[in-house]
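hey so i finaly got around to running the thing on Glycosyltransferase from Triticum aestivum. pasting the sequence first so u can double check i didnt mess up the copy paste, my clipboard has been acting weird all day
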Amino acid sequence: MGEEAPAAVTAAAATSPAPHLLLICFPGQGHVNPMLRLAKRFAAKGLLVTFSSTSYVGGKITASSGVEAGGDGVPLGHGTIRFEFLDDDFDGNDLDDLMRHLETTGPVVFAELLRRQDEAGRPVTCVVGNPFLPWAIDVAHDAGIPTAVLWVQSCAVFSLYYHHVHGLVEFPPEDDLDARVNLPGLPALSVADVPSFLLPSNPYKLLTDAILKQFRTIHKASWVFVNSFYELEPDVVDALPGISPPPPPLIPVGPLVELEEEGAVRGDMIKAADDCVGWLDAQAPRSVVYASLGSVVVLSAEELAEMAHGLASTGRPFLWVVRPDCSAMLPEGYLDSVAGRGMVVPWSPQDLVLAHPSTACFLTHCGWNSTLETLAAGLPVVAFPQWGDQCTDAKYLVEEFKMGVRIGTPLRRDAVRDAVEDVVAGPDAGAMFEKARAWSAAARTAVAAGGSSDRHVQAFVDQVVAGTIGARADKALVAAEQQGFDSSSLRGN
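ok and heres what it spat out for the 3d tokens, dont ask me to read them lol
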């Protein structure tokens, strides 16, 4: 992120308190991770940053990571990051109940949180929200506070949602797998590649409604950040301004992956197993199969058994994340049968696991956070998407980024074994590994000092410090990246 404080920040710090940026996050691990990482990057460049979410998230983060809610926060880079959570008191597990609770309670308690900042002498300069909390932007807008949005999925998925909301695309029937959707800047997609939230069979109606509501009002935001980097998705970033009506310019600020220099403050809502890295240290280089389906996906007992036997049948050491709510469904005697060769944990420090030299490949559900983490680590993947944007991400990982293979459904143990063999030792394994390493280099360059995403973060910080944050970000921000960049060497076209 650069070691020297920007001149604008240094000059402002000498005469007045740092501007106060408040990030409000949906209560899910897949949202907390990128939002907190973006918060740390803003803080490192000289801002006072408050990270907020529901009281449930606050309890989890403070318990697992040792951060303190309230108070002055902790120094980070040239700025400060602090934590303060909503007084909402929701303790249920049902997603629909959560969405209803947030819709009714969220605006009131968020307005109170903003008032508390005023009373404490640190008025909020700008609010950054995300599309699963559309009311947060409304509350800030009504209070006269400039806003930004972080889209935590890909630019391609943003385009699909935007086209849908504005009636610019019609998806084929779900049983017509031969039909193709063609949108500017995207490869031809089958209905199986479209985010499942946009299909009639989607059971998560309230969650989808919240996303679509944000898209209908997204022009209220001065900046629309996206957890991606220009070099990864140049075609769709270039194509979006030509859509009618055009969306606000997408500003890539990713990949929002954990980097050592961004500080030790973490947002783990589940405590990671302590011995993962030590176990990996004892394994041979590029030998371990890492498998994790994230914090939300739940396999049936039959699917879990097939995955278990498939991993065991690879003949390779494996590290498998099986959350506590699923571990009881493991086949009887399984843990004893794989002892010494397979390690099963309730949660892992995924960024450290993916970066470890003993890890050979990643069997993943293809959530966007996991997709970017494996890109940054330079690992080939075995893609096993379940729903939502995972379907689109898997399409890109396998066919566009060319760094893995896909397992179909229904899940079968032989398919797991064969897919792992393909990406680790098959005839195309070398090419997939080299492609993954090339993407890793591009990802790390984007967030390094002076890289495309780092420049976008700096431009936003400069505007906040200058007091002109209400002015909309302009597409000129990405103009430099749009000139002369050729991704064909990475995509293999």
